[in-house]
Amino acid sequence: MLISKVDLVMWTKNGSSTLPLVLKRIDEVIPEEFVNNRILVDDQSIDTTRDIAKSFGWKVFFNEAKGIGSGANTALKHVTSDLFISFEQDLLLAKGWWNKVPRHLKDDKVAVASGVRVSDHPCGLKKVQEYSTKRMAKMGDPFYGKTFDNTIYKTNIIRKLGGFPNLSVSAGLDSVLAYKVFSAGYEWRVDYTTLSLHLRHGLRDALAHYYWYGTVYEKLRPLLHEKKFGLRRNVLRVFVSPLIGLDMTIKEAAPEAFYIYPFIRLNVLKGILDGRRKYTR
After folding, report:
1. Hey, what CATH class is 6-200 in?
2. Res. 1 pLDDT band, cuts 50 70 90
3. How far apart (Å, rounded) are the C-alpha atoms in residues 146 and 175?
4. Measured between alpha carbons, how far apart are the two ends of the chain, in Å?
5. pTM of the entire structure?
6. Buried b / exposed e across 59-91, counting CB within 10 Å, b at 16+?
7. Are 149 and 117 spatial neighbours (Cβ–Cβ below 8 Å)?
8. Is the omega angle on the peptide bond into residue 20 within 30 degrees of 0, that is, cis?
9. In angstroms, what CA-CA distances link 280 with 179, 197, 229, 267, 271?
10. Average pLDDT in the 50-73 region?
């Protein structure tokens, strides 16, 4: 499949602090001659998000409901190209993304392709995520790296699958879509050599997100056809996390990884337990 015109889509909510940098990078990475439409769906922002988007030439639409799932499906309705690329408002696209990721769609079996994102700071967290990326690349984890923020899709296949998941929770939609793609006999290919930067507000902000992901696990588990809760597995991960953190410290030359990785595992486990209590009452 030859890459011709693509549509660019994004969903936003109060993204003015990162949007100028993000949109500028997209313009630098995606060649103008390949861009058909720039479609931004905004979810009732109260800052200057919509004005910034318009100044970069994006067409702005309002989210038909609320949340990422609705925003993604609203954007999909306006896509007119055979391929489209989705971004999130806090993702700084890797400079080599265009030359690496879209080529995977030349394989007829591949419906979706993406790179990997790592946090821009603190450095220790970035090193932890880079270590995990190398490890998962070797293991071939079916869900690692599946995100909506630096991703190209075959439009007809996504529409055939019913569009993006629209869930009552706002995390894990990418994993659910990946499961739908696999179940339909297609591939979602991840280029582990392409690292985009997730613009974070520090370690506390990142740990809060890991906790948040944990809270929705119980809700997502049936959608991913995972029958077991896996409490023992997650507790074990916490216990062995200092050893893995030490390995990260040595291999990535990042002393902070020794304590950052255990904090990540603790926050994920706490989120899972809190989410389980919330959704199984």
Report:
1. alpha beta
2. very low
3. 6
4. 49
5. 0.91
6. ebbebeeebbbbbbbbbbeebebbbbbbbbbbb
7. yes
8. no
9. 23, 35, 12, 20, 14
10. 94
What does the alpha-carbon distance between residue 38 and residue 178 come to, in Å, rounded to a whole number? 24
Structure tokens at 279: 């959704």
Q: What are the boundaries of each domain within the chain?
A: 6-200, 206-279
Q: How far, in whole angstroms, is CA 149 from its chain's centroid?
A: 5
Q: CA 274, CA 270: separation in Å to the nearest integer?
A: 6
Burial group, residue 192, by CB count within 10 angstroms (0-12, 13-18, 19+): middle
How many Cβ atoms sit within 10 Å of the Cβ of residue 176?
20
For residue 243, the SS3 value is helix
Digit-coded pLDDT (tens) for 199-242: 988 889 889 988 988 888 877 777 776 655 567 888 999 999 99
Query: Using 50, 70 and 90 to split pLDDT, how confident is the model at 2?
Result: low
DSSP string, 204-235: HHHHHHHHHHHHTHHHHTTTTT-----HHHHH
